[in-house]
Design goal:
heterodimer; A: two-stranded antiparallel sheet; 11 helices; B: mainly alpha
Chain lengths: 219, 317
């Protein structure tokens, strides 16, 4: 069910990306291009939740910083992914501070109108309603710490410890934030409607009938 | 019975808003579809959409990114590495930096300039640290001439029998000249001249007078010259007779004949009020009213006259 970005638990290195990383460190632009194609989409989606409309600019700054510091980097593809998302987060924080000074207001940076993401609309086309932008828009409505934890775990494909390293928090805090974020998403009407439109669920609650099996409500 | 049944249902009902930690981890890892739970199922679908395959519009900009990569790699190593190292250190430390890439470069440049400035200050300080030592090794122009002992009347160089003509070998013959010099060197040169037994009382007197006239503002040099003159010209009555004596001596033809010797050294603070030629252009501040000696003749002339009178008296006798 989870897309290619979240494949695996993020704890194991990708051989293909390892080779590309080695080449990029040595100055091979082809290796850098492989890294970019693999990680630019998750970087971009993560930044869309963090900074909204400035995601592309901040992503460019992230890669520029990474290219400049790449000769000094040591580690595998997983460590590089952690390192890259840490750069992205820091650049995102800088952008949020700059945006805050420009706007001089207290609006939440995760405001969907500022992020340029379409507000989930049940009357919209099915493809647009249930697409990636819809998902990111809903995640962006979460509190910042929950949204980042979910994005790093799902979109970036990082394990709990790796996500904690990016966020500068303890793994337990990241685990709790992720769980709370999922719970809040599960209560969202659009999320439940999505499941209902797909015909996945059988009702509001599922009753355990005990050792004999499950029975649906109303029996 | 019905109430027990309802109670049992209530106790075993799984609420969709109670995604526990285990289910959350399974959903995040993509290992749960949330089947049977609308909320969980919806979350599973949402997470799947969020991590879906890359879209074409998300891969726009690859060429620009590669170009930036090549430009950065071909940039100056020092500038790039400094700012990059600063940024990478902060990035790897896990802390969110308060500055951006451009600010890191500015910091690196400022640090480099500060190091250059410190090096320059240190170099200058070391240079000047040696200056006092070097200056100490050079005879200080401001050093007091009194540091060098001057020949006193009781010293072998300066002792003479009262009324006796100083012999050529014992007469002090200070090396004086019309140029500016340190006073201590003048006295040292004078002592040296004494030891070498310079000849010519007139030349000596002329030189001493020139010294006295040139440096009469400098007490030490002036007194030394005066002392030598008195030792040379015993008829001089104290220091008061020296101004008039020297003025007449230097105005006389004898002064033009007697060549000046080595230049005495005088302190830089001494400002001779006469040109180096030795010709006094200004009268001394204090002019004695009744000099013992004749204003019209020099001691040497008086001696000659005395001799002549003596011979006449002998004839008459």
């Amino acid at each position: 069910m989870v897309g290619s970005f979240g494949a695996g638990d993020g704890r194991s290195d990708d051989p293909e990306l390892d080779a590309a990383l080695t080449a990029a460190i040595s100055g091979d632009e082809n290796g850098f291009a492989v890294l970019w194609r693999a990680l630019q989409p998750p970087i971009l989606r993560y930044l869309r939740v963090v900074v909204g409309a400035a995601a592309e600019d901040v992503a460019s700054e992230t890669w520029l910083q990474a290219a400049r510091d790449l000769p000094n980097f040591t580690g595998g593809s997983t460590a590089f992914r952690v390192w890259l998302f840490r750069i992205a987060r820091n650049r995102g924080m800088d952008e949020r501070r700059r945006a805050g000074r420009r706007r001089e207001d207290t609006r939440e940076p995760y405001d969907q109108s500022l992020g340029g993401l379409p507000v989930p609309d049940v009357a919209a086309d099915v493809m647009e309603k249930w697409g990636t932008d819809w998902a990111l828009g809903l995640i962006a409505t979460l509190p910042p710490d929950q949204a980042e934890a979910v994005m790093l775990r799902v979109v970036a494909g990082l394990a709990v410890a790796q996500a904690a390293e990016v966020l500068g928090k303890r793994p337990g805090a990241v685990r709790v934030a992720s769980m709370r974020g999922l719970r809040q998403l599960a209560r969202h009407p659009d999320v439940r409607a999505r499941a209902a439109s797909d015909g996945t669920t059988g009702g509001e609650d599922t009753v355990d009938e005990g050792p004999g099996g499950r029975t649906s409500e109303g029996v | 019975m019905r109430r027990l049944s309802d109670l049992w249902v209530a106790m075993t009902t799984r609420r969709t808003n109670r995604i526990d930690a285990t289910e959350a981890e399974r959903l995040l890892a993509g290992q749960s579809t949330g089947a049977g739970d609308a909320g969980a199922a919806g979350v599973a679908m949402l997470l799947s959409e969020a991590s879906a395959a890359a879209r074409p519009d998300e891969l726009i900009g690859e060429a620009a990114a590669v170009e930036d990569y090549l430009r950065v790699r071909s940039a100056a190593p020092s500038a790039v590495d400094i700012s990059g190292t600063v940024g990478s250190i902060v990035e790897l430390s896990g802390r969110s930096p308060w500055y951006g890439p451009s600010t890191a470069r500015t910091i690196a440049i400022r640090v480099a300039l500060g190091l250059v400035l410190l090096f320059a200050i240190g170099t200058v300080s070391v240079h000047f640290a040696y200056l006092p030592i070097r200056m100490q090794q050079v005879p200080s122009a401001s050093s007091s001439p009194t540091a060098a002992p001057s020949p006193s009347p009781s010293s072998p160089e300066g002792r003479r029998a009262p009324g006796s003509q100083p012999s050529a070998g014992a007469l002090p013959s200070p090396t004086v000249s019309t140029g500016a010099a340190v006073g201590s060197n003048a006295m040292a040169a004078g002592r040296s001249a004494d030891r070498t037994a310079r000849a010519g009382d007139t030349a000596t007197a002329v030189a001493l007078c020139r010294t006295w006239m040139d440096y009469r503002q400098d007490e030490v040099v002036r007194d030394d010259a005066a002392r030598r003159l008195r030792s040379l010209m015993t008829s001089l009555d104290g220091p008061n007779g020296i101004p008039a004596f020297c003025r007449k001596l230097l105005d006389s033809p004898v002064a033009t004949v007697a060549p000046p010797t080595a230049a005495p050294t005088v302190p830089p603070t001494a400002t001779p009020t006469v040109p180096p030629t030795g010709t006094p252009t200004a009268s001394p501040a204090k002019t004695p009213k009744t000099p013992r000696m004749s204003a019209k003749s020099s001691p040497k002339v008086q001696v000659a006259v005395t001799t002549t009178k003596t011979r006449k008296s002998k004839r008459q006798a």
